[in-house]
Specification:
- The chain has a domain at about 35-110.
- The chain has helices at about 15-30, 105-110, and strands at about 35-50, 55-70, 70-85, 90-100.
- The longest helix is centred in the N-terminal third of the chain and has 13 residues, at about 15-30.
- Strands 1-2-3-4 form a 4-stranded antiparallel β-sheet, with no helix packed on it.
- By secondary structure, the protein is an alpha+beta fold.
- The radius of gyration is 26 Å and the shape is elongated.
- It contains 2 helices and 4 strands.
Length: about 110
């Protein structure tokens, strides 16, 4: 009696799940250390201000974070805010933030 065991080699094309995972990781860049990050955000505001009527506005922010070394980065952000209280008043404010960030666990992650 003789037993023969054979093994079939997978084709060169990866399975669909592997292709999806690879494409997803490439899209979110999870394995790549970014040196420059651009941050953009907006938040609408709606409400009612009593006798003055409806209140609404929008807050926006634009920022850039630049890594100087893997554990230290410099962040510069500009925030703007527009608010209107019915026909009573309008307000526009703008402020800037310059900050440093220290990623204390970064050296253990690499």
């Amino acid at each position: 009696m003789q037993t023969e065991i054979t093994e079939e080699i997978d084709s060169l094309r990866p399975r669909p799940t592997r292709r999806f995972i690879k494409a997803y990781q490439k899209f979110i860049r999870a394995q790549v250390e970014e040196t420059t990050l651009i941050k953009i955000g907006a938040l609408p505001q709606f409400g009612y201000a009593g006798y003055v009527g409806p209140a609404y506005g929008v807050s926006t922010q634009v920022g850039v974070e630049r890594k100087l070394i893997p554990a230290l980065s410099l962040l510069a952000v500009v925030h703007t805010n527009y608010a209107r209280l019915g026909n009573f008043s309008e307000e526009v404010t703008m402020r800037g933030v310059l900050a440093g960030r220290w990623y204390y666990a970064q050296n253990r992650r690499t």
